[in-house]
Specification:
It is a single chain. This protein is of the alpha/beta class and 199 residues long. The protein has one domain: NAD(P)-binding Rossmann-like Domain (Rossmann fold). The protein is built from nine helices and eight strands. The strands form two sheets. Strands 3-2-1-4-5-6 form a six-stranded parallel β-sheet, with helices on both faces. Helix 2 crosses helix 3 (42-53). The longest helix is centred in the N-terminal third of the chain and has 14 residues, at 12-25.
């Protein structure tokens, strides 16, 4: 299954982040419960699909307006974070993928099963000392994750794309000179999928 250069360009960084977090770090497998925050976002919508492809039960947090989009991607359960506290709504989660950080970290620890893992893929942002200490005190795993370039992993990702198990959704395509606007849009957490810059 071929994809155009726009959708292909939307994949590498976000797909590697989602793939390596879920597969290399968490070893997500059949029957595990995976909670993906910002599930309709650039990393999140790919993480939903990757976790589903590996047989997990996937729960996503997103505004209600994005639930239909996420159901189409395979999400099993969705939580509208604007009306429901996810920390009170779900339990026994094996893996949390968190591209938001901040208070989402400590709140996510409340959802984890024993031996569960919280993976923070935010990159830059708030200090994680408190959540790291809380995770350690509870016997839970906390990982701050940044992707590593890998041809092998990109081939595995390409296999999922070819099988139709993974697709990048593109929210907007903007010219390179609008990079600042693209960054602002991505910071609003309102994008559905990726924002792609083109020359």
């Amino acid at each position: 299954m071929g994809i155009d250069h726009i959708h292909a360009g939307a994949l590498p960084v976000t797909a590697l982040t989602a793939w390596q977090s879920l597969v290399k770090v968490a070893a997500v497998g059949v029957g595990q419960r995976v909670l993906v925050h910002a599930a309709a976002g650039g990393i999140g919508h790919l993480a939903v699909q990757i976790a589903k492809a590996r047989g997990a039960y996937v729960i996503g947090t997103a505004r209600e307006s994005k639930h239909a989009f996420l159901r189409d991607l395979g999400a099993d359960e969705l939580i509208d974070y604007t009306t429901t506290d996810f920390a009170a709504a779900v339990r026994d989660i094996d893996v949390v993928l968190d591209p938001i950080s901040g208070d989402y970290g400590p709140r996510s620890l409340e959802t984890l099963a024993p031996d569960g893992i919280l993976i923070d893929v935010r990159g830059t942002g708030p200090d994680r000392t408190a959540v790291r200490e809380q995770a350690h005190a509870r016997g839970l795993r906390f990982v701050e994750f940044g992707f590593t370039p890998s041809g092998v992993d990109l081939r595995d990702i390409a296999t999922l794309v070819e099988r139709g198990s993974l697709q990048a959704a593109v929210d907007q395509v903007l010219p390179l000179e609008a990079a600042a606007k693209a960054h602002e849009l991505s910071e609003t957490n309102r994008a559905q999928g990726k924002i792609v810059l083109v020359p």
